[in-house]
C-alpha cells in the first residue's frame, strides 16, 4: 500500500459529492466539481482538476464495485487541491502498475496531468484514492 499523501492543514472543504456507481458518475462528478472548485477558490486549472476527479471516480465505479461513490475536494494551507474518492473495496491490487499505466489508463492519466496519486484504507470500511494537485497557471 502506498502511504497516504502528507498534506498540510485543510483550509476549505466542499460538501461531499455523492454519486451513483454507474457510467454517469464521472460526468456528474465533473459537473458538480466545477462550481465547488470556484467556491473553494482553487488557484489552479479547473479543467485539469475536474479531469483528474472524473478519472478517479470512473476508476472507483469500474474497479471498486461501488453502488455509491463519494468524492471530496479540499484546499490546504499551501493551496494544494486534495481530491478524495471513496469506494467500498478494501484493497487496491496492482496499484503501482495502475499508476504506471500498465493495467489501465485512468490513474496514469491523473498522474500525467500532474496529480500525486496514493491510496489508503478508511477507518469505517473500504478505501480512499487521493490525488493532490499543486496550484499553477491556468491555461486559457
Write up this protein.
The chain is α+β, with helices and mostly antiparallel strands and 140 residues long. The protein has a single domain (13-133), classed as Histidine kinase-like ATPase, C-terminal domain (Heat Shock Protein 90). 33% of the residues lie in helices and 26% in strands. The chain contains four helices and six strands. Strands 1, 2, 3, 4, 5 and 6 form a six-stranded antiparallel beta sheet that branches. Strand 5 and strand 6 (127-133) form a beta hairpin. The longest helix has 18 residues, at 46-63. The chain is globular and about 35 Å long. The mean pLDDT is 87.
User: Given the helix and strand composition, which structural class is it?
Assistant: alpha+beta
Give the mean pLDDT.
Answer: 87
- CATH fold group: Heat Shock Protein 90
The global form is: globular
Attribute tags:
globular, 4 helices, alpha+beta, 140 residues, Heat Shock Protein 90, six-stranded antiparallel β-sheet
Question: What does the secondary structure layout of this molecule look like, with pairings?
Answer:
Layout: E1 10-13, E2 17-20, H1 25-40, H2 46-63, E3 68-76, E4 81-87, H3 95-99, H4 106-112, E5 116-121, E6 127-133
Antiparallel strand pairs: 1-3, 2-3, 3-4, 4-6, 5-6
Helix pairs in contact: 1-2, 2-4
How would you briefly describe this protein structure?
This protein is of the alpha+beta class and 140 residues long. The chain has four helices and six strands, in the order E-E-H-H-E-E-H-H-E-E.
Amino acid at each position: 500500500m502506498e502511504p497516504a499523501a502528507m498534506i498540510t492543514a485543510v483550509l476549505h472543504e466542499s460538501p461531499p459529492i455523492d454519486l451513483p456507481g454507474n457510467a454517469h458518475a464521472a460526468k456528474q462528478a465533473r459537473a458538480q466539481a466545477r462550481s465547488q472548485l470556484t467556491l473553494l477558490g482553487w488557484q489552479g486549472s479547473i479543467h485539469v482538476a475536474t479531469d483528474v476527479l472524473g478519472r478517479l471516480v470512473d476508476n472507483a465505479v469500474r474497479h471498486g464495485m461501488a453502488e455509491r461513490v463519494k468524492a471530496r475536494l479540499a484546499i490546504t494551507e499551501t493551496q494544494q487541491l486534495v481530491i478524495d474518492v471513496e469506494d467500498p473495496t478494501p484493497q487496491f491490487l496492482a496499484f503501482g502498475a495502475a499508476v504506471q499505466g500498465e493495467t489501465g489508463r485512468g490513474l496514469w492519466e491523473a498522474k500525467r496531468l500532474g496529480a500525486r496519486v496514493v491510496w489508503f484504507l478508511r477507518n469505517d470500511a473500504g478505501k480512499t484514492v487521493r490525488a493532490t494537485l499543486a496550484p499553477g497557471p491556468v491555461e486559457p
